[in-house]
Inverse folding.
């Protein structure tokens, strides 16, 4: 991603109030793949005893990242919305660590996009959570693949 | 037959139940971040998510962020399940809610998986949700949640999740 494209993509994230509230940063975008990260934030803690971030905050990261992956698909949809999203929580994210989600839009039909995603903290070998989702897909005009 | 006990004054009962509920939700920063409240009628809880500009995911429609909807439903499921456990213990006289404060919180269940169906666009208005405990075993629980905005019958989202039960053998004080 060149600097200009990165700036435009980050502005897209900044335009989403909730994503901005969670401090999301776009790390990678293109060809149906997106990576978005989010800093550790004490306001997002779900278990006060352990300081672990609430699963609901990870959901937002997965959902945003999945939607971004769909929008970056080569068939350039004009819009997308989540139909369903399933998240499996493998382990608690380590308090203090940044969380990064990576989503891949691996198949699209005329009206549906299929996405899978994984989230990691600083430990790259053991995922924190995985997700699978379906999104609406409005193919750009003239493209009825 | 043993002599019937005189019922406690209603205000004492309500105070005890409200204190127990407050001990569950008050200590969770993320619930405060989203601004979620819980209305209680007996043992029935309704989660309320008051609208706030920061909850928007699509500023052009505008619509609530899918992550907000998912989080609202997951919070409702976790508190709904925990509340059912606390309620049982409280009504049986096994826990005294007055002893539950920030340092003696009940343990919360952990999410194993959570699946959200987005049925309609989340409008820029208040949202409501209720959880139903479909199974509550020794180790696992299965919870269904429904969320609506203006009309109770027109859900804008529903979810099913599986949860790992908190360890209830040890007192909640020691971790």
């Amino acid at each position: 991603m060149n600097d200009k494209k990165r700036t435009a993509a980050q502005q897209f994230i900044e335009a989403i109030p909730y994503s901005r509230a969670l401090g999301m940063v776009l790390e990678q975008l293109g060809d149906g793949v997106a990576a978005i990260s989010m800093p550790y934030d004490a306001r997002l803690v779900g278990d006060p005893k352990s300081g672990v971030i609430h699963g609901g905050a990870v959901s937002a990261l997965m959902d945003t990242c999945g939607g971004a992956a769909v929008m970056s698909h080569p068939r350039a949809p004009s819009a997308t919305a989540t139909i369903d999203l399933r998240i499996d929580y493998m382990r608690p994210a380590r308090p203090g660590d940044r969380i990064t989600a990576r989503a891949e839009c691996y198949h699209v039909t005329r009206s549906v996009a299929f996405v899978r995603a994984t989230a990691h903290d600083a430990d790259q070998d053991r995922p924190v959570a995985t997700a699978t989702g379906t999104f609406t897909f409005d193919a750009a005009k003239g493209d009825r693949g | 037959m043993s002599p019937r006990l005189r019922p406690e004054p209603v205000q004492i009962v309500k105070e005890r139940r409200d204190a127990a509920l407050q001990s569950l939700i008050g200590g969770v920063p993320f619930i405060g971040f989203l601004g979620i409240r819980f209305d209680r009628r007996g043992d029935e809880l309704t989660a309320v998510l008051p609208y706030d500009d920061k909850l928007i995911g699509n500023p052009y429609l505008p619509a609530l962020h899918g992550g907000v909807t998912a989080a609202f439903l997951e919070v409702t499921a976790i508190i709904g399940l925990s509340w059912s456990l606390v309620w049982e213990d409280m009504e049986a006289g096994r826990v005294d809610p007055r002893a539950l404060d920030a340092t003696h919180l009940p343990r919360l269940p952990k999410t194993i998986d959570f699946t959200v169906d987005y049925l309609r666009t989340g409008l820029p208005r208040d949202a409501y949700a209720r959880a139903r405990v479909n199974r509550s075993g020794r180790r696992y629980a299965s919870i269904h949640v429904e969320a609506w905005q203006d009309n109770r019958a027109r859900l804008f989202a529903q979810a099913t999740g599986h949860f790992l039960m908190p360890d209830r053998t040890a007192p909640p004080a020691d971790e």
In short: The longest helix of chain A spans residues 55-71. Residues 3-136 of chain A form a domain with the Thiol Ester Dehydrase; Chain A fold (CATH 3.10.129.10). The first strand of chain A starts at residue 25 and ends at 30.
